[in-house]
Amino acid sequence: MSSAVTPATDRSQTAHTNARRQDMLILWAGIVFSIAFTALIWALGPRLEVFPHLPDQGATWYYWKLPAPDTWARITAWGFYLVHNAAIWAILFMAQRHRTKYGVTLSRFNIAALAVNAVFVVLHLFQSHIWYDGLAQDVHIFTSQWSVILMLVVIVMMENPRRGMFFGKKAPLPQRTVQFARKYHGYLFSWAVIYTFWYHPMETTPGHLLGFLYTFLLLLQGSLFFTRVHLNKWWGFTLETMVLVHGTIVAIIAANGLWQMFFFGFAGIVVATTMYGLGLPRWVRLTIIGVYIVFALAIYSQVGITKIHQVTWIPLTYYATVFVLAFLIGGGIWLAQKLGARSQPSAPA
Q1: How far lies 59's CA from each of 63, 142, 145, 150, 251, in Å?
Q2: Which of 6, 78, 167, 218 could form a disulfide with 193 if both were Cys (CB 3.0 to 4.6 A apart)?
Q3: What is the pLDDT of residues 293-331, one digit of tens each?
Q4: How far apart are CA 133 and CA 193, in angstroms?
Q5: Please, are residues 135 and 195 in contact by the beta-carbon 8 Å criterion?
Q6: What is the pTM of this model?
């Protein structure tokens, strides 16, 4: 029997292979685009020096905004933000309504989301260089930080059934709360990312550049909903732990003596929770925990061992927020069900 492959069969196999790899190919293309666009922001940075700034006024002050609000800066920043967010929400809604299934090829909804995000990334660059101001002129810096924290906290909640919350052990979260978060997380995550994306002008400090790179990758992940690569555990781990790098670098640049808190705080979440989603052998996990403890003791023995309690601040905030949010979601679901039951007509006697 001949084992020769006909040209038609070969073309069919090639097409099947390309389709099987489509989501991964787009992921890598998106990563390259994100890095290249971050480099473009850096290259164009000197053009932003014409915009004046007020003197820095401390940790709660956002330095990168105009001394006085500008009408067109406000219109473009808020206008582009609202249209960007609304467009992505509309695409998500249509994709869910269409009952799109997870697969390895991109649907028309993925293509639309990628296109919308790419257009607004370019628009934001033009907006920064023409009008400069982002949303920071009108809202507090903590809103930008907490939008991302809220996203990361919901990820911890959603992943609880798969990887647990504390060293592989599951937290007692109601199943319907987790299911609700999984079903609607795309709307929350897209808002969180797009909001913080439009909060900042495209400045070129190391913190801004790394932050925009992180934001681009999150927009990419959000555009690949209902694809297998969206569920890839290593890609997801990378996105979750990038906040460790970003937070630590920003704290080092700020020179406020708190980089240890950010590094060991976020690393503590990786050690206690995130790494358990990777399926690592037990000895690897124990090694990582040991290295974390030794490194923390070594650093805090230099800066003051009495300050080592700082390593708990971020994890305690994370996990407390998980339970508070789970309570609020669960309470909201319960209330909606009660109100829905009351609105139903009673059965005839």
Answers
A1: 10, 10, 13, 21, 11
A2: 218
A3: 999 999 999 988 988 999 999 999 999 999 999 999 988
A4: 18
A5: yes
A6: 0.89
